[in-house]
Amino acid sequence: MRRAGKHQRALLPWRGSAFLAALLLALSVLSGCAGERSSETRGGEWHYLQFDTEQRAVYDAFRKACDDPFSEEPVGIVDESGESVRVSVRDADTVYQGFLYDHPELFWLDQTYRYRLSGEEDETAYTDAVAVISVAASYKDQKQMQKEFEAAKRQMLSGIPDRGHDGERAFTIYQRLTEGADYKEETLYDPSMKSGHTAYGAVVNRGAVCDGFALACKYLLNAKGIECILIPGTSGGQAHVWVTAMWDGKWHEADPTRDVCAEEGEKGQFFDLTTEEMNKDHAREESILTKAVPIAEDR
């Protein structure tokens, strides 16, 4: 077994350096979702739709592995015909990040995933199976976390109608998320503070870093039927994550972390920006995770 850490950038895992045996696994955050997915659910999996066939096979293996996050057995990566698929660990890392970005509700798994090494070529490691690990000590603890998260979500969304102008509803949700929350910088340096990188940290504990606030924003907007996508990149030269959301037939960018950190009276300035406006001090990373994310045009 191999345990991988993660970069200080939001949610991107890295591979460890020590090999332990023939079956090696590299740990990554995932979450539980079981069974076949409808086309409607697929529509909410933005990054899944951007991946190629082999990457989708990895994504599907992650999903299946989430049926039992306490299992030590890896799930084989297979194509639609059931044939085994081998992919580079680098590709698996990218798929993992996209899977996490698509599923902010899956906050209760560790921020590493496990993989089985299937060979190396030209210093590139390959895998044909993956597994996941829950941060909870048991199913009971995991269910308690889910219960707490659901209660906090209901409170945060209380009184917000299921219908109405999406922009107005989005702003109300955004205000509730960012006001009274704290940016927990120590999360970046303390590996034990895992919840700060998740929607759970932002919604339940009311303290997180950029990926936690972005994931929470997506989760809460999605809960009210508003489409939202995470955008990884940099802000002020530092690794960062923010969001873009859809209403009135257009995309609108927002950075909840910047508004969490803003002084009173200045909050809300990073809501409903065009990409050009956001890019004054933000830059999208150049990767498959961002190349298909829509541009927020002039309103």
Number of domains: 2
Specify Rg, calculated over alpha carbons. Answer: 19 Å
Give the helix/strand class.
Answer: alpha+beta
Mean of all residue-level pLDDT scores: 85
Topology as a string of helices (H) and strands (E): HHHEEHEEHHEHEHEEEHHEH
Categorize the overall geometry: globular
Work out the helix count: 11
From the structure above, extract its key features:
299 residues, alpha+beta, C8orf32 fold, 4-stranded antiparallel sheet, globular, disordered N terminus
Outline the structure in words.
With about 300 residues, the protein is an alpha+beta fold. The chain folds into two domains: about 40-135, no CATH class; about 140-290, C8orf32 fold (Roll). Helix content is about 35%, strand content about 20%. It contains eleven helices and ten strands. It has helices at about 40-45, 45-50, 55-65, 90-100, 140-155, 165-180, 200-205, 210-225, 255-260, 275-280, 290; strands at about 75, 85-90, 110-120, 125-135, 180-185, 205-210, 230-235, 240-245, 250-255, 280-285. Strands 1, 2, 3 and 4 form a four-stranded antiparallel beta sheet that branches. Strands 9-8-7-10 form a four-stranded antiparallel beta sheet, with helices on one face. Helix 7 (about 200-205) links the parallel strand 5 and strand 6 (about 205-210). Helix 3 (about 55-65) crosses helix 4 (about 90-100). The radius of gyration is 19 Å and the shape is globular. Residues about 1-45 have low confidence and may be disordered.
